[in-house]
Design brief:
alpha/beta, five-stranded mixed beta sheet, 8 helices
Length: about 180
Amino acid sequence: AKSMIRDNGPGMLFLPVKMMKEVKAHVDLDQCMPLNKAVVLHRASDSSVAAGKAVTVLTYLHGVRESEKAIELVKAQNPDADIELIELRSLKPLDIDTIRQSLQRTHKVAILDESTLSGGVGATISSLIAEKCYFELDAPVRRLSMDDAPVPYAASMEEVVVKRASDLVTAVFDLVNG
């Protein structure tokens, strides 16, 4: 938010209420994050990359927490498999260079996003990957998005609709096992 405020261009900050309630951490007030750069939060191990068992996961906001849970679940089920987790801190412009560098290592990608399957953020990211990184891929882009339906208000119903860590683990193993 600090970088956005200091930038001369227009900006919009989206922050889900549930993240504001859950995330508690020390904030360095002197640090400004670049607005146009994604961040690799977890780098897949060299051994999993060499074995072809690593998957790049692209996500943002609440998907970061779910992806961090998935890393532990993947490692518990198969120590040879791993996730290279990239947090997309900006969707426009999208940091395609960081995505490309990761795909040059893993050659597989899953996009975890809370928008709908049709016309959502994941659809746009998937099309950009297909246009700009096609020859880096060994498998189709795997999108984990909500079905094309309204988001229910009830938390218990939302949990069924929004993709979670368990869905990501299944997608990762689908990608690494062919």
